[in-house]
TrEMBL record:
HAMAP family given in the database record: SerC_aminotrans_5 (MF_00160)
EC number(s) stated in the UniProt entry for this protein: 2.6.1.52
Keyword Cell inner membrane: no
Taxonomy of the source species: Eukaryota, Metazoa, Chordata, Craniata, Vertebrata
Name recorded for this polypeptide: phosphoserine transaminase
GO molecular function annotation: O-phospho-L-serine:2-oxoglutarate aminotransferase activity; pyridoxal phosphate binding
Organism listed in the record: Eptatretus burgeri
Presence of the UniProt keyword Cytoplasm in the record: no
Pathway: Amino-acid biosynthesis; L-serine biosynthesis; L-serine from 3-phospho-D-glycerate: step 2/3
Stated family: Belongs to the class-V pyridoxal-phosphate-dependent aminotransferase family. SerC subfamily.
Superkingdom, taxonomy of origin: Eukaryota
Length: 322
């Protein structure tokens, strides 16, 4: 059902794994990093190399973990503030990289790639963390060597990790790789080399049925566009009372962080905003501890009616407090 929903070609295998996205931070370099003779002071003459695009906390964590296994090349400068993505045409991939990694949607900073990027010199397969915008819109996975997603955002409950991997990339695994992270072993045994997360798989199947009955990924995309537009309109039409730092092109449809009372926010107003929201049954709007402010996460399960309630509350709060 997933292959049909996402139009996944037969060239790609679908694996059901454990460990969440964090497990994949290790699994990817262990499966894909190949020795290509780069000389570095850190790793010696023979080392493995991979390219990473860091656009927020999760891609930063992935790059940090991958450094345990080889040399990591940042294909573009890490932004001082994660409010945009350096244009792919400006990236500088290394010629000996085994893969190029990016995070399709950064949940904490609200930065999302609107489509699969095209690097200027595609020497290596693209690897994408699609955990937080998985199944929220159509995506051309044929352009990706590997995509992975934790199920807990749009695909069900925690415990299941979906990996979509190009079959020709299998078989490159480091001999030190734990067997439960070896893509080739998992694929050979149809994802049941060890006991899979059965309940999470059941819920995932029910979610896929719901998506198909609702109109498939095009319907999810239309719904998510409408939901995010409503919140961004409330921000943009507030005259600065609400503020989003993310550049328009890179605004996430899934996660919208914003400040109340100006670009840097007012602690008094933001505390009052959260208190009022909770009194109306809207919880989980507090921004990540590293960011502060407010964050609205608009995953597939959040309805348009619920988003309307939030945008209406935003207008009401602004009228009472500006």
């Amino acid at each position: 059902m997933l292959r049909e929903s996402m139009s996944i070609p037969c060239s790609h295998a679908i694996l059901f794994m454990h460990g969440g996205g964090t497990g994949q931070f290790s699994a990817i370099p262990l499966n894909f990093m190949e020795t290509k003779g780069r000389t570095t002071a850190e790793h010696g003459v023979e080392t493995r190399t991979a390219d990473y695009v860091v656009t927020g906390l999760w891609s930063s964590k992935a790059a940090q973990e991958a450094k345990k296994f080889g040399h990591i090349n940042m294909v573009c400068p890490v932004p001082e503030k994660f409010t945009y993505v350096p244009e792919p045409a400006t990236w500088a991939p290394s010629i000996d990289a085994s893969y190029l990694y990016y995070c399709a949607n950064e949940t904490i900073h609200g930065v999302e790639f609107p489509e699969v990027p095209t690097p200027p010199t595609p020497h290596a397969p693209l690897v994408a963390d699609i955990s937080s915008n998985f199944l929220s819109r159509p995506m051309d996975v044929s352009k990706l060597g590997l995509a992975f997603a934790g199920a807990q955002k749009n695909a069900g409950c925690a415990g299941l990790t979906i990996v979509i991997v190009q079959r020709e990339l299998l078989g490159r695994c480091d001999p030190r790789c734990p067997v439960v992270l070896d893509y080739g072993i998992v694929e050979k045994h149809s994802s049941v080399y060890n006991t899979p997360p059965v309940w999470s798989l059941f819920v995932f199947n029910q979610v896929l049925k719901w998506i198909q009955e609702t109109g498939g990924l095009p319907a999810m995309e239309a719904m998510n566009k409408a939901k995010s537009k409503r919140i961004f309109d409330a921000i943009d039409q507030s005259g600065g009372f609400y503020s989003s730092a993310v550049e328009d092109k890179w605004r996430s449809r899934m996660n919208i962080p914003f400040r109340v009372g100006g670009p840097n926010g007012s602690q008094e107003l933001e505390t009052a905003f959260l208190t009022g929201a909770e009194a109306r049954g809207m919880v989980g709007l507090k921004g990540h501890r590293s960011m502060g402010g407010i964050r609205a996460s608009l995953y597939n399960a959040v309805t348009e009616d619920e988003v309307f309630l939030l945008s209406s509350y935003m207008e009401e709060f602004m009228s009472a407090n500006r």
